[in-house]
Amino acid sequence: MAEPASGPAERAPGAAPAAARHVVFRAGGERFALPLEAVREVVVPQPPYARVPRAPAAVRGAMNLRGRVVAVVELAPLVGLPPDALGPGQGHLLVLDRDRRGLGVWVASVLGVEPLAPPREGAFEPGRLDRGVAEVRGAAVTVLDADVLEARAAALFRSA
User: Fold this and answer.
1) Considering the domain boundaries, does residue 3 fall inside one?
2) What is the domain range of residue 44?
3) Would you say residue 152 lies in a domain?
4) Are 127 and 103 in contact, with CB atoms under 8 Å apart?
5) What is the distance, to the nearest Å, from the Cα of residue 102 to the centroid of all Cα atoms in its chain?
6) pLDDT at 9 over 60
C-alpha cells in the first residue's frame, strides 16, 4: 500500500504553474485583480463616511461595517489613475482583513472571480504594487500585491 504524500505535489519541470483564484475588478478605467484569499468580502459602500481631516484624495474616510470600523480608500488615485466618478453607495468595497485592520478598497465594479496563473519566477520585485499582468477573457488585468496595497493605504492615514 502506498503512503500518502506529506507535502504539496511537486510540479514537473516545464509544467505550467497552478492557477489561483483572483477577484477581478475595474478602477480608474483599468482592470485589476487581487488574490481571492486577500479579500474578506465585497460590499456595497454604506455612506456616510467619517471624514479624516487633512487626508489625501484617495482616502474617502471610515465607515461602520456591522460594528467594525473599516478605512475606505479609493483605488484609482492610489495607483496613479484619475478618480472614478462614484457617488455615495456606488461601486464596491473590497474589504481586506489583514493584520486585524479593516481596509475597504473602493472600486468602480467587480467583474468576478477568475483563475489566474501566478507571475513568472523572477518577474516580481518586492515593494512593487503590481505583481504583473495577466489575461482574462482577452483583456489585460494588472495583478496587485495585497500586502503592498495595504501598506500604501495605511501610510495615507498616517500622513493625515
Assistant:
1) no
2) 20-116+125-159
3) yes
4) no
5) 13
6) no
Query: Residue 150 falls within a domain, yes or no?
Result: yes
Contact 32, 24 (CB under 8 A): yes
Please report, for the domain that includes residue 94, its CATH number: 2.40.50.180
Share of the chain above pLDDT 90, in %: 36
Q: Residue 105 has which C-alpha cell?
A: 478598497
Determine the average pLDDT of the residues in 17-42. 92
- pTM > 0.85: no
Q: How far apart are CA 123 and CA 129, in angstroms?
A: 13
Per-residue 3-state assignment (H helix, E strand, C coil) for 108-120? CEEEEEEEECCCC
The answer to whether position 13 is within a domain reads no
Give how many domains the chain has, as a whole number.
1
- Residues 96-122 have a mean pLDDT of 82
Run of H or E residues at 148: helix 146-159
Whole-number Å distance between alpha carbons of 48 and 97: 21
